[in-house]
Amino acid sequence: xxxxxxxxxxxxxxxxxxxxxxxxxxxxxxxxxxxxxxxxxxxxxxxxxxxxxxxxxxxxxxxxxxxxxxxxxxxxxxxxxxxxxxxxxxxxxxxxxxxxxxxxxxxxxxxxxxxxxxxxxxxxxxxxxxxxxxxxxxxxxxxxxxxxxxxxxxxxxxxxxxxxxxxxxxxxxxxxxxxxxxxxxxxxxxxxxxxxxxxxxxxxxxxxxxxxxxxxxxxxxxxxxxxxxxxxxxxxxxxxxxxxxxxxxxxxxxxxxxxxxxxxxxxxxxxxxxxxxxxxxxxxxxxxxxxxxxxxxxxxxxxxxxxxxxxxxxxxxxxxxxxxxxxxxxxxxxxxxxxxxxxxxxxxxxxxxxxxxxxxxxx
Amino acid sequence: xxxxxxxxxxxxxxxxxxxxxxxxxxxxxxxxxxxxxxxxxxxxxxxxxxxxxxxxxxxxxxxxxxxxxxxxxxxxxxxxxxxxxxxxxxxxxxxxxxxxxxxxxxxxxxxxxxxxxxxxxxxxxxxxxxxxxxxxxxxxxxxxxxxxxxxxxxxxxxxxxxxxxxxxxxxxxxxxxxxxxxxxxxxxxxxxxxxxxxxxxxxxxxxxxxxxxxxxxxxxxxxxxxxxxxxxxxxxxxxxxxxxxxxxxxxxxxxxxxxxxxxxxxxxxxxxxxxxxxxxxxxxxxxxxxxxxxxxx
Lengths: 363, 297
Prior knowledge:
heterodimer, A: mainly alpha, MetI-like fold, 2 domains, two-stranded antiparallel ribbon, 2 strands, B: mainly alpha, 11 helices, 73% helix
């Protein structure tokens, strides 16, 4: 009996081993092929990011090669043939002497690339000037206003949701606030244009109806769900033991929230704010609709501004394929891309490592 | 100050922040509904714009948005699903490749939408389209200009991360037992993925698709110069035609039109249609996702 059982077990074991080795040895084409295809397709996301880099920069590049006269000749050439961006590169060599003659430190608008850092943005005029300073400072102003509005509100709301709210209320608040992320930015822009602009004007009584303040608040609305959700995540990720220890020592819930949980979640909250800045910085439709779109340098929050992204959105449709203005707009796009890319990398690597290190070291 | 009083004040301050956000959400909804509802009727949805866009409906914009998001979904969903399968099933968490893909997906998710528009213009129109024209059409301009195909593909890149994240989340909720059971029965990895993982994540794929469509329907910046048109007297008939879109229609009507006040009812009604569309799509997606998360617990 025993030996019979043993024999049958041995037999089964043997066949099981055979199956395993069989599987190992046999080359299955469909499996191999599927894995290769899946892997290749997965690389597409990396390829797309690299392609965005290449193509946005490629179109911006001619700006560093052209001088004013060439830009005009390119423009004519393009209008004739509608030949594409490649033509912008070609005529560079033809007027070498001119390039040599032009003084390199001059800022009078001879070379389009040298007007880049001037203080006027007047791309459509006889003597076009592509000074991106007013655009950059305008974007900065709107971003600051926006952040001053969105960051405190979202962080406080996240603290309420994560620390003070009863579970049942929390289940309602979270999805409702996240609804805001579902509003298309053009809808928020429309609301800002139609309602907020009028209401704010009647409260503050400023001159221009659309300005940095209205635009900033409206763009803050787009950033609130990002900052709120990520801050809430960061707060709930703080180990439960911290809260319990603090409450056990007799601290109130407010003291626990602000002196224990909040400091522990600071890297996560920073990451949330950084990603919020990225969202505000690149927001186009709200900026187009609510900031007034006047490129001027001023410190007054109630003056109109023109942001970098709004400039691209407003002017790209009207430029000639491949001319200087076109390249400058792509240059602005490159700046936006580098900036948001850097912010994302900062949030992803620096702050996330900080979070991980913090909890691991204190465990 | 009295500690209890301070506690109460700080707690109510945080509560007020929550209420303020909710107030803003409600007022956007209320204003849009109050302004748009009276003008929302069947003729508005089924007619072309009339009299220089001051009267009539938004039928071509609805069709344009629908067709554009459909092409976008056809392009984005397969790629998103396959990338998610790779990340969840094949890649090991610590491999450099998986980390780079994840970082690339996150980058795509945070790149400003206007950059996608620039990319669509530089890559799809200026590079691919121009070369297609040069090679196949003898230089005649057909694909080297804005059209619905390039707009949809641009939008597909923008919504790719949405699909990937949803599908991967769904795949991760499939119990390891099921995979192991399949492998133990002698199925290969690819068979397991095909017969167990993909059927198990159908709801996740659906969620991702709906969220992507909702996002794509609302975004305007990427299609500003890759295919959206101000006014067309006809619907798009081929992939090389331009199209009208709801979001672009709102933007144009409220900022570029010569008589903004006269078209206010149209603007509000269009906004309401767009809002209803994105909200109902999001609502379906959230319900589906809730079911997936429940299964995970």
